[in-house]
Amino acid sequence: MLPVLAALLLLAPASLLLVALLPSHPGARRPAGMLLASRLATLLSLLLAVCAWVLIALAGAITSPLLGTFGIGLSVRLDAISCSMFLLVAFVGAIVVQYSRNYMDGDARQGAFMAGLCRTLAAVMLLVLAGNLVQLAAAWMATSLSLHRLLVFYPERRPARIAARKKFIVARLGDACLLGAAATLVARFGTTDIATILAHAQAMPTDAAPMTVSLVALLLGIAALMKSAQFPGHGWLPEVMDTPTPVSALLHAGIINAGGFLLIRFADVMLLSVPTLHGIALIGGFTALFGGVVMLTQTSVKGSLAWSTVAQMGFMTLQCGLGAFAIALLHLVTHSLYKAHAFLSAGSVVDAETAPALAPPRLRPVLLSLLLAMAIYVGLGWLFGILARHEPAVLTLGAILVMGVSMLLASALQGATTRRLVLQTLAGAGGTTLAYFCLETAVTWLTASSLPPIPAPNATGLLIMGLAIASFAVVTVLQSLVPRWNRQPAWRAARVHLANGFYINACFNRLVGALRDDRTRHHRTTIA
Q1: Burial of 393 per CB tally in 10 Å (0-12, 13-18, 19+)
Q2: Residue 138: per-residue pLDDT
Q3: Which DSSP state fits 235?
Q4: 3-state class of 185 per DSSP?
Q5: Is 244 in contact with 103 (CB distance < 8 Å)?
Q6: Which of 5, 266, 423, 457 has the fewest CB within 10 Å, making it most exposed?
Q7: Same domain, 98 and 170
Q8: CA distance 218 to 95
Q9: Beta-carbon contacts of residue 19 (< 8 Å; ≥ 6 apart)
Q10: In a domain, 154, yes or no
Q11: Are 405 and 432 in contact (CB under 8 A)?
Q12: What is the Cα–Cα distance from 381 to 489, expressed in whole angstroms?
């Protein structure tokens, strides 16, 4: 009975697709029917997402019957992973749709925009709920194609066309890798059912996995890297700023998570290829550092938020590469909520940025703050038993957390003039660390039956962890020194190169023909 009820969750994407098929009436300034239908569809999706948690609370992981034949059709895989992502997409989707009602009010194509938004949300929901490889691959490609139409919603904006073209090329590479991985999995295991494939993967010894499974892990890793805007295929994400704000919010808070979801969903398969995990960790760690440094040089709010997403997706990829898939899932959810709020409230962010800035922290307070953050982490980690688990990956991620908290302490303590402010700052840092431990413990418990435990690292894995800690420590110290270098000519020159991402996007532009468009337009203008 419960598997049949799980299939009813497909009503969420079905209702959104029905809304997308409604006539949009381009001449209407406010298509009331479309707006009401889209709102009701998102609220229904949110209700069904809550019901999904009730189902797995009653029966654990569930796979619905296949609505199709020969492994081709629709099915739902319900566990802590899919329910978390389903609830996240439904919640963010409901907010974005409601925001779009006012944001696009008066636009002649408001109905078409709402239809595209609902179509994209439906594709993402089909992706996170997928119980078979065919549905997953189809929804993966449909999400990308539907997003492409939203990115060029205003086709007269040339930067949007260039960014969408780059995104299209990167996405097609990811699609090819995912299709290759899916075909290999079907050939190896003789089924498209994801639960069956994962069960077979769990039964395989890590040190004796077939080459075909290692190939699958590599293809899945490449597909995830392409989808998550990882270096060097990251260039399109910071340039997708000429689209409507609701599209930016949906992209940075939902669709960009598809790569991480793919790695987390097939965690049992990924663990069978340790070299692939090492490669993912290295690329993710470098992307996180690269995006974080470039973000500091951006002068626009949306540009800074976009590079922040690049860095955060890199950190999430690093977590997956270290085998900490439960922590990566937590990161996806929390980052999505933050980024949706940040994009939809970008105007208030501008007001906040115009407030007087604190003096840049000196090196000595930064080092003192680092020691205080370490003491807070060790104390709370001991209470939660994190330190006794002897999991190097968790300790590595905790060390990186300490560096972030230390920067919070350094910036606040620099401007604190009373003992009360100092105590409030320490309490805030302690509360942040406590929240991390509580959420990490909760998500580990929730996903214990869906995700494998963090594997013990080999020598190469330990080396990567040490490199990650050292790299983030260097960047943390540099962040405290950068404000004091603003008047130095060498830093001013370096800042220009950093702000342009070391011109990697320029090379990509040549590949996609952006410069050729410039020459063609100049030639046409000269003739005219």
Answers
A1: buried
A2: 96
A3: T
A4: helix
A5: yes
A6: 423
A7: no
A8: 36
A9: 34, 37, 38, 41, 114, 115, 118
A10: yes
A11: yes
A12: 44
**pLDDT, tens digit, 9 for 90 and up, residues 464-494:** 888 888 888 877 777 766 666 667 777 777 7
Place of tokens 């003039």: 417
The overall longest dimension of the chain from CA atoms, in Å, is: 74
CA distance 80 to 96: 24
The answer for 75, left when phi > 0, alpha when psi is -120 to 50, beta otherwise, is beta
| Burial (Cβ within 10 Å: 0-12, 13-18, ≥19) of residue 508 | buried
Dihedral sign computed on CA atoms, order 498, 501, 504, 507: negative
Q: Are residues 139 and 112 in the same domain?
A: no
Helix (H, G, I), strand (E, B) or coil at 25: coil
For residues 480 and 110, is the Cβ–Cβ distance under 8 A?
no
Q: Tens of pLDDT along 323-347? A: 999 999 999 998 898 888 888 876 5
Phi, psi of 244 (to 5 degrees): -55, 145
Tokens 């629709």 found at: 74
Question: Do residue 259 and residue 383 come from a single domain?
Answer: no
Contact 263, 216 (CB under 8 A): no
In a domain? residue 418: yes
388, β-bridge pairs: none
Please report the DSSP string for 104-140 in residue order. TTT-TTHHHHHHHHHHHHHHHHHHHTB-BHHHHHHHH
Strands, E assignment, 48-94: 62-63, 67-69, 72-74, 77-78
Which residues, in sequence order, are CB contacts of 398 under 8 Å at separation 6+? 377, 381, 386
Spatial neighbors of 282 by CB under 8 A, at least 6 apart, are 321, 464
Is residue 514 pLDDT above 60, yes or no?
A: no
On whether both 216 and 315 belong to a single domain, the answer is yes
CA-angle at 16, arms to 239 and 48, nearest 5°: 110
Q: Which residues are registered as beta bridge partners of 74?
A: 67
Could you tell me if residue 421 is inside a domain? yes
Greater pLDDT, 24 or 230: 230
- Provide the β-strand partners of residue 63: 77
Could you say which of 312, 347, 382 is where a domain stops?
347
Helix (H, G, I), strand (E, B) or coil at 76: strand
Which residue intervals of 416-488 are DSSP H helices? 419-446, 459-481
Range of the domain at 121: 1-131
Same domain, 251 and 307: yes
Cα 89 from Cα 255, distance rounded (Å): 9
Kindly give, in sequence order, each residue whose CB lies less than 8 Å from that of residue 501, ignoring residues fewer than 6 positions away: 235, 238, 290, 294
Q: At what angle do helices 363-384 and 392-415 cross, to 10 degrees?
A: 130
Distance CA 450, CA 195 (A): 10
